[in-house]
Amino acid sequence: MVKKLLAATVGLLLVFAVLLCGCTGSGDSGTVQAENTSGEESLLVYCGAGMKAPMQIIGEKFTEETGIPVTYNYAGCGQLLAQMELTQMGDVFMPGATLEFNNAMKKGYVGNESLVAYHIPVIGVPLGNPANITSLEDLTKEGVKVSMGEPDSMALGTIAKNIFNKSGILDEVMDNVVVQRATVNEIVTDITLGNADAAIIWSDLYNPETMEIIEIPRSQNLIKIIPIGTLTFSDQPETAQKFVDFVASDSGGKAVFEEYGFIVYPNSEYADITP
Which terms under GO biological process does the entry name (predicted)? Predict the structure, then answer.
């Protein structure tokens, strides 16, 4: 009974946090359902929304092996950090890049770091590429509609902004931004529905049946690494670390990430990419 009350309290606090952060409708959650055979409480994992598909599978595999249920809170990384600050609850943090992770470390919320896979930005366009986008510079053309992540809410929003700035086209691209989204999943929807002509998305979200992508040259790109770590306010740090180790293991989480099109860390081709 006590565990159920605790779980309910955490859930209510997370909802409250989402409302305060103005994130209603942009976040998501998921629970890996299984009989709790471990005698331990469910783990609460704050996870970037773009990694929902592989992380759900990883959670299921972890629960199968350990009997420990896993509950996910999916949202943009900025939103997740704000929720952690408000609730001071949870066990594991896994954003889509190291920026918000490093911010959480500076605040004392994260106690360690393991590196899992690379996150590679690409340009996503609707099927048929109606605006004839072939490069970053094409996003500055008159009439091109760009969907972009909110820099204050999600890692990819900040990264996209920095990519444009690196190529000296930030102001011109921002003039063509028709919408800013809180999660990368919403950006992908803009592309697949044709509501935008182009957007910066992660390469692993590419679906050849619903979109096309244009690779960004390494000299213009900002490739990132996906981190994961335990939260310092976790009530079950050993169990949280067990989950982190499982996600970062070659036979556990990394194998699943490879199945979903990620390049896992480390890789000699990306030896120059640092956290």
Answer: molybdate ion transport
Task: Give tens-digit pLDDT for 241-252.
Answer: 999 999 999 999
pLDDT tens-digit readout, 195-224: 999 999 999 999 999 999 999 999 999 999
- CA–CA dist 153, 181 (Å, integer): 8
Q: Which two tokens stand for residue 114?
A: 């393991």
169 Cβ contact partners less than 8 Å away, ≥ 6 residues apart: 136, 137, 139, 140
Provide the CATH number for the domain around residue 136. 3.40.190.10
Task: Flag whether 17 is in a domain.
Answer: no
pTM of the shown model: 0.85
DSSP letter assigned to residue 25? T
User: How far is 200 from 260, CA to CA, in rounded Å?
Assistant: 19
Give me the DSSP letters along 86-131: HH---SEEE-SSHHHHHHHHHTT-B---EEEEEE-EEEEEETT-TT
Is the bond into 275 cis (omega within 30 degrees of 0)?
no
Q: Which residue range is the domain that position 256 belongs to?
A: 43-118+223-264
